[in-house]
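Colleagues,

Please find the record for the four-part complex below.
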Amino acid sequence: MMNGQQYKDSLRKLHPIVYCNGRKIESVVDDPMTAPHVNSAALTYELAFDPEYEDLMTATSHFTGKKINRFTHVHQSTEDLVKKVKMMRMIGQKTGTCFQRCVGFDALNASYITTYKIDKKYGTDYHERLKKYMQYVQETDIMVAGSMTDPKGDRSKKPSQQADPDLFVHVVERREDGIVVRGAKAHQTGMVNSHEMLILPTTNLGPEDKDYAVAAAIPVDAPGVIHIFGRQTNENRRLEGDIDCGNAEYAIVGGETLTVLNDVFVPWDRVFMCGEYDLAQEFVETFASYHRQNYGGCKVGVADVIIGAAASMAEYNGCPKASHIKDKLVEMVHLAESMHCCSIACSAMGHKTEAGSYYVDTLLANTVKLNCTKTMYEISRLAHDIAGGFIATLPYEADYRSEVCHGYIDKYFAGDARFPTEDRIRMARLLENMTGGTALAESMHGAGSPQAMRVMIQRETNWEQKKNFAKRLAKIKTGD
Amino acid sequence: MMNGQQYKDSLRKLHPIVYCNGRKIESVVDDPMTAPHVNSAALTYELAFDPEYEDLMTATSHFTGKKINRFTHVHQSTEDLVKKVKMMRMIGQKTGTCFQRCVGFDALNASYITTYKIDKKYGTDYHERLKKYMQYVQETDIMVAGSMTDPKGDRSKKPSQQADPDLFVHVVERREDGIVVRGAKAHQTGMVNSHEMLILPTTNLGPEDKDYAVAAAIPVDAPGVIHIFGRQTNENRRLEGDIDCGNAEYAIVGGETLTVLNDVFVPWDRVFMCGEYDLAQEFVETFASYHRQNYGGCKVGVADVIIGAAASMAEYNGCPKASHIKDKLVEMVHLAESMHCCSIACSAMGHKTEAGSYYVDTLLANTVKLNCTKTMYEISRLAHDIAGGFIATLPYEADYRSEVCHGYIDKYFAGDARFPTEDRIRMARLLENMTGGTALAESMHGAGSPQAMRVMIQRETNWEQKKNFAKRLAKIKTGD
Amino acid sequence: MMNGQQYKDSLRKLHPIVYCNGRKIESVVDDPMTAPHVNSAALTYELAFDPEYEDLMTATSHFTGKKINRFTHVHQSTEDLVKKVKMMRMIGQKTGTCFQRCVGFDALNASYITTYKIDKKYGTDYHERLKKYMQYVQETDIMVAGSMTDPKGDRSKKPSQQADPDLFVHVVERREDGIVVRGAKAHQTGMVNSHEMLILPTTNLGPEDKDYAVAAAIPVDAPGVIHIFGRQTNENRRLEGDIDCGNAEYAIVGGETLTVLNDVFVPWDRVFMCGEYDLAQEFVETFASYHRQNYGGCKVGVADVIIGAAASMAEYNGCPKASHIKDKLVEMVHLAESMHCCSIACSAMGHKTEAGSYYVDTLLANTVKLNCTKTMYEISRLAHDIAGGFIATLPYEADYRSEVCHGYIDKYFAGDARFPTEDRIRMARLLENMTGGTALAESMHGAGSPQAMRVMIQRETNWEQKKNFAKRLAKIKTGD
Amino acid sequence: MMNGQQYKDSLRKLHPIVYCNGRKIESVVDDPMTAPHVNSAALTYELAFDPEYEDLMTATSHFTGKKINRFTHVHQSTEDLVKKVKMMRMIGQKTGTCFQRCVGFDALNASYITTYKIDKKYGTDYHERLKKYMQYVQETDIMVAGSMTDPKGDRSKKPSQQADPDLFVHVVERREDGIVVRGAKAHQTGMVNSHEMLILPTTNLGPEDKDYAVAAAIPVDAPGVIHIFGRQTNENRRLEGDIDCGNAEYAIVGGETLTVLNDVFVPWDRVFMCGEYDLAQEFVETFASYHRQNYGGCKVGVADVIIGAAASMAEYNGCPKASHIKDKLVEMVHLAESMHCCSIACSAMGHKTEAGSYYVDTLLANTVKLNCTKTMYEISRLAHDIAGGFIATLPYEADYRSEVCHGYIDKYFAGDARFPTEDRIRMARLLENMTGGTALAESMHGAGSPQAMRVMIQRETNWEQKKNFAKRLAKIKTGD
């Protein structure tokens, strides 16, 4: 296992091409725009060495019996699934943002299940390849970016029907030693500070989309790979100081990229699906269900911070005992814990797969994320209500630090006199950045659109059974 | 263990005094007003003999090692807690209503924990008494009504401050062989078809309320006990036939009573608290938390029936494929499963108590019920939206059965011609009775008011921890 | 104008055939099952003679210049539209339920507009016929049941595609002196205590549905007309006394019927549409928009009663000052007034039609009803939350009046000792009946399904304009 | 009346001291950080000369009979109140953001009513002074910043109890020629591009707070006045280009300041309250009610833009006809129109004041803003749901404009091929900036906290009347 420093050092040895705001980033570890994202991910390494969190952060490899970072583990029990959720909540409480590493974790576990199924149906050997790759991942403790979402173009069309065939990643050449892929992956969380990416198909496919059925592991600095870094709300404030950015050390959300794959070569031992289009949908859903499980972990950790910030603001404002403030804080806790319950339940109700690993209850995993797409907005709304108008019109950090304005701001933005004004401003800035713009929009997405989850719920619900429950009580002769 | 028939036979041997609608009920098993409630409870006996449900419905006594009905079990693991939830959902799907027996189940388990604590603090022997009583309950498989809620009078006053001292049950005499209690218990679910009741205190008490700190087991037909049966929405329709009542066999909700205790004698071996006022609050909350756990079981079973009825109505109306109908049905499933997740999670996250039994996570148990107080209304609203205006203006069963009107009703209330009109009417009546009046109001209450839960969430949340999560990220020097 | 007594006397002269619960109702004024509905409607007559309400309750006929009951008026200004809403709220506050007479009011006003359009397109003389009929209505002050909703059968099929051609009312014979119609009208509010009904088409029609395009006025006791009275929640309680029914004098909801038209003859001077299928949709929507306008009047009046009942219950329970109770009451007021605002706004933003009368803003009229379908559920939920578990398990009126039980109930259902227990029970029963079952389901329907309103909002919104607002700001070259 | 250019020219003649991001702003018209706010306000001048909007944008002075800009008008009828709402919606549709000028408009109208009352009670001559001042405002068409909100410090304390006496503006000296005031005003919308400010008290006051009861007009560049400009979400993006800022011409929200008043002198003819503490609360509420009226105008205009952007995004994404997309868009319209209805209704139900001007219905004005504090969040949530993950991870404008990345971004962020990728990015950026961070938080505040509105609803509701509605129906003898 690597610790945080070793992780950072290992990233320095890679040379991905990353563009950001019109320039090239030379070192993702050291560049101020990417460093906070590196810091978040580094915590997933560092905490594995903290005795307090050993049980959550590490696991025993079922391949080798060795102690490994849980983020590289194949779930061996429902207890493992529950620990994943608790681990994520705990890290979320420390970072107040995305720590990115779950995406690869889920992609690997989804591949573990799906490659087994492909092999069973087609006699291929993807599962063995994957097992070898995973042992390599466990051994080296590298960070793998789970890489699913294609740009998609016109949403009403299949990959092969798009005006531009590259709007979904596809195989453009099959060679003796491997394949060549072309296209791009969008919204790639944690990509620039990962070592490799594991690309997966992103939608259900028909026979005409055969070339789009591709899963493979690719180094982030492989020839032909180009990353364009996404922009976040207020992201440039981190260049100015440590107040206005709100969360100076860990930034906001996951540092997403558009990652372009310009005819990238992948050797066969890193290819885990190639052409088996009829299992693409299953690949997508297995990944998505594992990923939806997470939100009642990480997002609840984030919510814990927002709730704490709102409770602190109430204190600074001098009104922590007002009954309507207490009611709102309780409502926030209630909403957060309800999300958490869904993740715990989809884990505790998980089951063993044919491949031997453990998988979540998919119906319940969908409830997690559907709640999240509403709950995080509601929690943000309540936080704004508690924090007061203050949060929308705070002055600049530069003015707060300037000789001429500091005194005025310090004097007039005081709250309860027992607390320094700077604390009140810092807390408001944290809240501002955690409850607006990108942070909110991101709550909506990730792991598929809400509508995708509704479709899945519709498919997975046993409607006939529910109708029969009703027909029996209504005394309708059903014949069954 | 008794089966359903044995349970009914055993009730016939008791002679409780029960008033209902101005008359006395001679046999709760045979009287049409109480029989449907007996039927629901009987299912908790009958299903214990069904091999399909053996794992959920039965357990192994930790006292005797014998197989017992789960409703008499002391939880020995988080698995037991999860099975309780699943058992309740399953029975709810079959009855579409309350089957009552969980109240005593929870009262016994709460007593198991609390008597242990009282003894530890005061050197009393309540826990041993309770263990003997529980072995008797397990052996005889009797149904015990959990009996907590006092009438309460003026909600702003403590028991000893009330204008009438009897508005909370209290000890009026301490004798060598036992105690004499006076007062009443309100909203007593399943009381008339139980064998005994287990009374518990209902609120936190001060030294001046000492006499109100009483827990004891009392036969439902003990001298001095009088039951006045509560009224439900449309309850008299069951006297007319089997259509308009909606759920002919199992009625709606739990058949509650006002149970008056007119100086009732209780021997000491059935007394489990007497004067230890400072543990009253703990008694209440232990019971309430176990009871809040249930709602993501039984209510979700009920919701499964409502969802099935709504899905059936859409089919009868000819519009099962309309996208807005599908969206609403999916939303209903989503809401129901979210409630279920909370119950599963508070069970899976349970822990072992000092007394050796297992107890739920109380913070999460509160989220169950708080969700329920909103969700069941929302599910009902969606069901009405799907079912159409039809449900509000259906004609009488008597007209449907009359020579002159039957033809008109059958002709004009037809939907999709492939289904009999009677089926459509039956389903609408089931839905009407499950989603209105008493059924809805009952979703709000039981296991304490929503406000009580909010207070408990406020108390159980670690606010300092949450504030510290935020302070660290906001770079506020906290000294810790 | 008739007063309340004259209205009742006039009804006694009619002889409609009405079936209810397996028997024939001889006098709707005197039968206990229909009398409360007559009482509600009678108030629309009686209050017209109350000087306090003269401005709201009466208007000046634009035909004759005479003072008339507003319920027979053709709206002459937006002020008239606003007064309609205020009048309805005021009567709703007095009845706590539907007073039925708005349906005919809206049907007449919708006919006034639509007949003008038919004549303009087809050179017919329906508008003149209608004007004569309306002068007759104003002169005699009769109550006209607006009669739109057909049974509809399979919702996915047009009238002419139904398995049974009678599932929508249609013309079966065209004679020299008039037409013969067959079919039924469902959910007919106020029908049995009206003098005549004004039937309208219920859906958009194609050329093949020509015979279904029919509007006509028919006496409620015309040969061939049969009424089957619908059942309401707990409606039989009114036979027992005046407590358990909750609202003894005015019942709950509108006393709906299934009204069968068995080859009923209508003379030409009472026919206002016959075959002009392409204007059916317009007829429906004009009626529906007028009718949706009402809900922010009558339903808000009803909500005022529910809020008052909840506030009273809080007082009886001893907790009127608890901050969470006050918050809930305020939320109820907020929700009710928001509905009211929508009705006022759709009235104030109304406009003059080609026919010279005033019509509501239809987009805003839809918001009224869509809010209502959610708000009344939310208000009911909050009322249950405030009232407490009490409401779900109250004993029977017969027991409360019995010698043996009265004392117990009076003693144990006492709240704050300053108020009689009977008052507390009466208020809880009022609340029970206003917030459950039929009362709630009826909030969902009437004036078309929520989905119908969404469709109308979609059609009436100027999407291109909204997109252009955005395109201009986003600096997108639009060419316009 | 000034037009837009004249307005800008007039601002150039003023010399307010404005600090922003560590530097001094020399010209608010020309500085890129303030110019977009000037542009928004300039539209309130420019549109007054557009014949299409003459009826909404101008009015006839009741002082002089001259045509004036409506923003300087004293409302003379409910029609004036309705036109104010419609004018604001219209301008909001054009700017997509706050145009600031309503604050002074409301402050002037509130002063018109309140000075009349002060004079009546105390025999002062504030009303005459104000009338003269208003004629000056109408004549010169200057922009007056309504200046109410004090910093407030510890929210649990009155002004005179604060640790620092300056946390509310107060009179520090009374001279023969005028008064001297000290303190600050926070969240001052439109302040830097106004000509003068009209300060008002911000809370209810007791006798000990007498010096805090002060209302007065002060030039923005009076000696002793210092402005510190507030920071907005992503506000620096406007320095980079015109894509990433979303709304290049008009920015986001109102350009708020902390305005410090360092012993500022005000001559008596500009003082409109000085010491009459018992009317402070009335001043606050009159202003607040006028201001709450606005939100169903301006915010609905803003919502129209958001809805248009979401509808456009759906089109660009290739899914404008998906039924779940249509449902969400309809829901957005429904929510926006409901807010609008509340503003229209509180205007149409306005009444004449003793001073002769027209005032809104205050209960209904509160419903406007309370809806807004929820609705804008819900509309934003739905917009994010429709727009897709895209919005959270878009690349930088600099990369889009760079040679190396432009092609990739243009290729891979294409949607429906009929639309340019740049349009899709522009629309997403507009949506991002209108639905996050400051924009959302600002929906919560302005015109007082939501809790302040709830308190006002509680006070203004006639609870006894509502209880009596219920008591009569429940047959409770009330004695009245």
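Chain B has two domains: 4-279, 292-473.

Comments are welcome before we finalize the supplementary table.
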